[in-house]
Amino acid sequence: MSSVFFEALPFAPDRFQVEAIEASQAGQSVVVTAPTGAGKTLVAEGAIHHALDVGLRAFYTTPLKALSNQKFTDFRAIYGDDQVGLLTGDNSVNGSAPVVVMTTEVLRNMIYSGSEDLESLGVVILDEVHYLQDPARGAVWEEIIIHLPAPVLLVCLSATVSNPEEFTRWVAERRGGAKLVSEEHRPVPLETLLALKDTYENELTVEPVFDEGGRPNARLERSLRQSRNRRRRFKAPRRLETIELLAAIDRLPAIYFIFSRAGCEGAADRVAEGLRLTTPDEARVIREFAEKRTAHLGDNDLAALGYGHWIERLSRGVASHHAGLVPAFKETVEELFARGLVKVVFATETLSLGINMPARTVVIESLMKYNGETHELLRPGDFTQLTGRAGRRGIDHLGTAVVSYSSEVPFGRVAAIASAGTHPLRSSFHPNYNMAVNLVANYSRSQAQELLNASFGQFQSQLEAEDLLQRISDGEADIAAFRTAAECDRGDIWAAMASGDRRSHGTIMRAFGSELSSGDVIDLGDERLVLLARGTGSNPRLLVLSETGKLQRIRPGELPSSATRVGSMELPEPFQPRDEGYQRQVTKELRRWNDEGDHLAAYQGESFDPVRSCPDFEDHQMWVRRIQRIERDVTRWKRRQERLGIGLVGEFEDLMELLGRWGFVDGWALTDRGEKLRHIYNELDVVVVEAVEARLFDGLEPAEVAALASAFVYEPRSESWPEEWPTPALKRVSEDLEAIDQRLAAAEHEAGVGVSRPPESGFAELIYQWARGVDLTDLLDDGLAAGDFVRTTRQLLDLLRQLRDVFPALSRAVSAAIAAIDRGVVAAGGVE
Questions:
Q1: Same structural domain, 195 and 178
Q2: How confident is the model at residue 90, as a pLDDT?
């Protein structure tokens, strides 16, 4: 069977592609990990080919609507328009087709509703399966792997991760077997260059970061070090200079990453003003294509979106790409770049997620990124993800990654970050309200508990528990063995060590605090903290998260004298320290984090007692510190072992108790309210149902219905004051909505479950005006980016359709609200 598929290919497939396709066509689920651009999609096509050949259907799932739209277009070109469908929540095209592309949540919802479409399903492709570690959405991937009917095969496609064996073992347990196929080789080799401006020679140059042996470039490192001892010789290049140089050395097209929307727009403007990177014929083709792809937008919308300025930049071969752009603009940029017509795209890091836009060169302007609280260095895994697009397979013999020089980042750190790096795949699975009621609807209590215990999160917890048992045993044996080696014949080594330094506690701890960086793990003796962010000044405030999940701001002087930095852990991205899901994920990783041995104790001073004058004092001290560290570790491991005993089933039972008190379940049965909750897929699902049941939507005009519902989908990009509700009626119901939210928060706190975020009024005025027919131009005067407006409105439409279908009494008012807001640029297409 596979030979027919391979013979039809116009090229020879790679080893990993052949291995994975043969395994899936032999009836085995597969997990494929490979770098960006390695050709994982061919594995999916092989699985789809086999499913269609035996008369079964194939579902291809992605985490992003934009990626689903792209795959829909690609597959229609391969299989034909009538053979491919699309389901993304706000788009439904030919949903009964043999091949259907969908977002992951759509498949999860189909499984819970017992959809008939699953009966003829042969294979599901989970693209970007490493998304299961996303704090907000990751549980969906695990729910699919757990609940998908047993005969259906899985093809899991992932970027390279450091623990693929562990993930595959879990998939194999859930699906009756799975094969891991890994490919670490990049299809196009990568060279990494440092771009720097030589002020002595007044020229921009690019130098290799690594020598031919793959080691950091010693000559460049020496030159940079010497320049620091004199008048500074090197400085960061300007964006225009960098693009001019890349054009001169034939390294275009390029994606230039800047970690801010404003930075991307400013860079695109400056380069377009200074360069024309297209021929007259290319500029004409670009204009014709852009006009065709935006023809569905009205003149007023185009004016509001700055169409004239955008297309002028585009015709010169320059564009920006970020979440603030409407889909039509982003998709046009993506296609023109893929065709080689647009030569430079200035993009935020969101472009690294799935969209097919390979380039000859990737430029990273800064290895420092603002995470919401402070600026942090990129992790090696982030660098690998961003530079994965460098090098077009079949076109380039070499891909190029260019890092702009910064005097703030030592060359050694640049080289360390640019080394190939990966992240471990960690579960973010936790039961939530919607999951709980769907488990009640579909399974017995014992089956539900078995399924929760079958999650990847529980699988990793069990592995951790086994590892903890071994660590405790080994630690206690080491303590016993090390005590003899620690003894000193001149006196009490333990008392000498306890005497510590004679400086004041405050002075010592301030110095200790100034040495800390985000991600550092601090051992306090009886628990550990991870530093999320550090303030500025001589006595900076520290934002820390404990192993018990407590978030707090403290001064260094509030830390005990036993504080020791024992290493550093990688913080998940995006940085969202106030988000409950993010805090749970960081807490989980902190608990399983292993000591790296990179210790920095707060108290390190010397004193002059007989024990300290012993010639072997350093050896004694070493053994004491080892024992103290191991004793702390053993205590922490035992406490962690106790917490693991609660597990996901314990969290689930806490949720069930709360749902029972709120009338959603009665024992192991759903009430009418619980049945409604089953079909509301929203982060604030309980509050949504409560608001409807409290009749908060009754009597509202369509524009007011949209405004009130927007509170459940809108999340501000930064902290802001609550906005005023646009009408007196909304102001009145908002008080009841706030009361519902506060009651739920109190109940969640009492039950020991994660506290839901509150509804947000920040979008209400905008969507109210839009529903009343106000032009986009007038709305965007408020400073909200058009892409953000469209994305939030599409999310609102999804929720309104759920309300229409689940609550028949609201159908008329909600349908009118949908009609009022699904117009113009909003109706023009979906978003990520």
A1: no
A2: 66
